[in-house]
Structures are given as C-alpha cells and as structure tokens.
Amino acid sequence: MSEQEKADIRRGLRDVYIDRTLSSFIDGKKGQLLYRGFNIDDLAENSCFEETAYLLLYGNLPNKKELSDFDSVLKSFRPISTQILNILDVVKESHPMDALRTAISASSAFENNVEDISLEATLRKGIHLTAMAPTIVAAHWRLSTGKIPIEPREDLGHAANFLYMLFGDEPALEDAALIDKDFVLHAEHGINASSFAARVAASTKADLHCAVTAGLAVLKGPSHGGAAEGVMQMALEIGSKDKAREYVKSRLKNRQVIVGFGHRVYRTEDPRAKHLKEDARKLSERKGDPKWFGILEEVADAMKPYARKGIAQNVDFWSGAIYQILSIPEQLYISIFAMGRIPGWTAQVLEQFDNNILLRPRLLYVGDKNREYIAMKNR
Q1: Among 152, 161, 181, which Cα is nearest to 48's?
Q2: Are 187 and 57 in contact (CB under 8 A)?
C-alpha cells in the first residue's frame, strides 16, 4: 500500500493538533474557555481588556504598576499617521474589514525594523497594532460617512476611546463597559481559522504585520467572523417577536441554518454567550429598545430542543444585538471582533516564533495520472 493510499484525511483539520500552546484552553464538551489558565467567566466579570491583553501577551495578570505602564504604552500607540489617514480616505468606500486589513498592512511601511521577528520586537508590534486598530476602524467609518476623523483621547480606556472616536461623544460608562467585555470575550480562542492563518504566516518567518493581515483576511469570512452581522440580518428579516418561532421552524424544515447557533468546537452553549445575553437584556431595558432582544430571545427559546444535539448559542448571537442597540453600524461588527482578537493573534505568533516549524500539510491527489500531452495543432 502506497503512502498516499494510507493517508488519513481529516477534512477541515477537525480534531487535528498542530502544536502545544499556553495561550488558551477550550473544553468543547463542558463549554469551558481559559486564557492562560484563567476561566473566561472570571475574566469577563472582573477583568478589563487592557488587563486581559497583558495576560495574553505576557502570560500573567499584571500588578497595579504593570497594568498602568502597559496602559500608558497602549495609549501612546493610538494615533495613526497622516499617511495612513490618506490611505483610509482612498479606500473609504470599501468594507471596514478591507480598510482595516489594508491599513494594518500599509502601517508596516512606517514600522521600524518591521522584519525583526524577535520575541521582543514582535511583542512591541503586537501592542502597537492592538492600540492602532480602533483608531483605524473609527477613522475609516467617519471618512466613509463624510465626517472628519476624531483623534484618540488619553484619558479614556480602550473601549471608551473607540466609542468616542466613532460617535464624537464620550460614551456612558455602562456602554463602554459592554464593549470592553466584548473585547475580553473575543481576545483569544485557540487555533481557529484566523489564528491558524496567522500561525501559518509566522511559520514562514514572515513578520507580525503579515501574520495579522492574514488573520484579518480570514476573519472577514461569514463562516468565521461574520456571524454577528448575520444574526442581526436575521433579526431584521424576522421583523417582530411573534414571527420568530415560525421563522425558525421554516428554516429548519428547509435544512437551513439558524445564524448564531452551533460551533465547530463547543457541543454545548458557548461559555462567552451567557455573559452577553444578560448584558443585552439590561441594555435593551436601559435604552428603551426591547425589540431586538425580544426577537432573539424568542429565537433562542425555539432552538432549545436542539441544544442536546450540540446546536447551542455562540458568542455572536448576543453580541450583534448589543452592537445594534448601541447604534454601532452593522458593517463594523466584524471589525470589533478583530480589534479584540489582535492580542490573541500576537500571542499565537509569539508561540510560533518561539518554537518554529514550517506549517506545510499535504493534499491527497485523486486525479488522473500520466495523461498524454497533445500538441496544440492536434487539439
């Protein structure tokens, strides 16, 4: 039997382990997620994004001085150059994820020693990209809507500053806290498609800007980062709470998926989803806008029987409702995911560089062999 005949094909690389990691742990059966050993439940309720980013990048929770110093560095890296603003203006009519990908890639031209892939340089660049991303996203959105970009403020936290740059007003503390938690919940999630893309890039010894650009390109796909956007499109299609159950019944009867349900790894409720559901409910009450929460709650209730089959709510189901109620444009939903994920991609790249091997899987050829070449005049 030949080597190819013995090949064990795992389509989609499901349950294939490519390496060891210290960044995050996922137990799909129990619905458990850990960052560097810390339970996501504890981080979601007690940590802020800056602290969580520090944890992922450095491996430990910071003390008060370490967090303050890290926060200061993040804030110093928030501004973007005139050249990047000009690029964003050129691509102002593109999708925000395309603009973010383009700006991150272009920013490598203004990075000192961009090709330095030492752990120290990669860590510094990861912090820089984490800080810049909200400024890029907010500036592009304002340019695309005919508004002037707003410069970042150093007296606001990472999430609050993003909302300020987006809307022009200092956000309510409760609103900023919701986006902050959303960033925490999206910060890292093992070797998902975008993290795998980032690690493949890093395995070739490409620099962090290349790896993050690869991650952004993959995240844009609707099967990965676009689910939150799809959830709100579904809610808009349903229109009202009383139509939700019939919508679910009709889709399932026609073997169509319900967006925001099911996960490649989790066989129970996504541990991140439960934190956002209660937040979405409280937000809808506080804003006097119960419509979207009511529709999605009815969809979730109609889908309960399928939880036993592993088709349960994922993190995107409730995050879309929160963005909608906060009046965040639908086109920005994936970009918010990306902003939170950059520390996770950086942590993955750091691991890849630290113990590198070229990621080069194979494909099993099943086509014809030894076909006769026919000259052009005889075809």
Answers
A1: 181
A2: no
* CA torsion, ordered 186, 230, 326, 176, to nearest 10 deg: 0
Active site residue 71: no
Pick the CATH number of 24-218+333-354 from 1.10.10.10, 3.40.980.10, 1.10.580.10, 3.40.1390.10: 1.10.580.10
Q: Which of 377, 369, 351 is nearest to 24 (CA)?
A: 351
d(CA 247, CA 261): 14
Question: Residue 3: what pLDDT?
Answer: 65
| Pair of tokens at residue 367 | 């086509």
**Has 275 been annotated as catalytic?**
no
Name the catalytic one among 182, 270, 279, 316. 316
Do 338 and 197 touch, CB atoms closer than 8 A? no
As its CATH architecture, domain 227-325 has: Orthogonal Bundle (1.10)
Catalytic residue among 140, 189, 263, 275: 263
pLDDT value at residue 247: 94
Contact between 103 and 87 (Cβ < 8 Å): yes
Residues (pLDDT < 70) of the chain are 1-5
Tell me what pLDDT residue 228 has. Answer: 77
Edge-to-edge order in the sheet of strand 32-35: 24-27, 32-35, 38-39
Cβ(313)–Cβ(300) below 8 Å: yes
The per-residue pLDDT for 292 is: 87
Closest CA to 99 of 287, 339, 371: 339
pLDDT of residue 15: 85
Q: CA-to-CA distance for 162 and 75, rounded, in angstroms?
A: 12
pLDDT digits (tens, 9 = 90+) for 284-315: 999 998 888 999 999 999 998 887 777 888 88
Residues 6+ positions from 230 with CB-CB distance below 8 Å: 222, 259, 260, 316, 320
Give the domain ranges of the chain.
24-218+333-354, 227-325
Q: What φ, ψ does residue 64 adopt, rounded to 5°?
A: -60, -45
